[in-house]
Specification:
Layout lengths: L1 H5 L6 E4 L3 H10 L5 E4 L13 E3 L9 H11 L2 E7 L1 H4 L18 H8 L5 E9 L1 H11 L2 H7 L3 H11 L5 E4 L8 E7 L1
Parallel strand pairs: 1-2, 3-4
Antiparallel strand pairs: 4-7, 5-6, 5-7
């Protein structure tokens, strides 16, 4: 829930979610004066805003083209992210096994969705860095096999996972095809 993080520096944040459990959780957890929540379909939200932040959600939307067109009407800038199909799904697959994803995107498909609605679209890639980059290397050298055979999987990941922080990721405009996610910065 990025609404709480955004609320640390934004004058006003409105989180929109149709899921009743997500709405109740967010409303109870993030209670600062400048953060509020609406329980509605994001497609119905039409109030003018300074910016739209829509992270890891476009892949769940039935009509993403209409949604993106709506974003362009209500905000001068939108930050929209989605997983990279090429690093999410098995090699050669058209989709991952995530049953909640309606459409997953390759870079060129993502551009084709966004560019008709905005005058400028910059796409950045989210990549592993620091601890996660080292872990990626260890996996390529057979670390999964080693920790499983030694019975260390749970103890290792019980410590490793909570230690992951924002500094273990990096945004870059290079090597987009191998990025974990695409983050599009879209200007009207």
């Amino acid at each position: 829930y990025g609404s709480g993080v955004l609320g640390r520096s934004a004058a006003e944040v409105i989180g929109v979610d149709a899921n009743p459990e997500a709405f109740e959780h967010a409303s109870a957890k993030y209670t600062t004066e400048n953060v509020s929540f609406r329980r509605e379909l994001v497609e119905s939200f039409a109030e003018p805003r300074d910016a739209i932040i829509f992270l890891q959600t476009i892949e769940h939307v039935q009509d993403p083209d209409s949604l993106v067109a709506g974003f362009a009407k209500i905000a001068p800038v939108a930050y929209i992210s989605t997983p990279n199909l090429l690093t999410l799904a098995p090699e050669g697959a058209e989709k991952s096994d995530n049953p909640w994803h309606i459409k997953e995107y390759r870079l060129e498909e993502y551009r084709a969705l966004l560019e008709p609605h905005f005058s400028r679209v910059e796409i950045l890639g989210l990549h592993h860095a620091r601890k996660l980059k080292a872990h990626e290397l260890a996996l390529s050298l057979g670390w999964d096999r080693v920790h499983k055979s030694l019975g260390l999987s749970k103890p290792f990941y019980d410590r490793f996972t909570p230690a992951i922080s924002a500094s273990d990721f990096r945004l870059s405009n290079h090597d987009l095809e191998s990025s974990l996610d695409f983050l599009a910065v879209c200007h009207v």
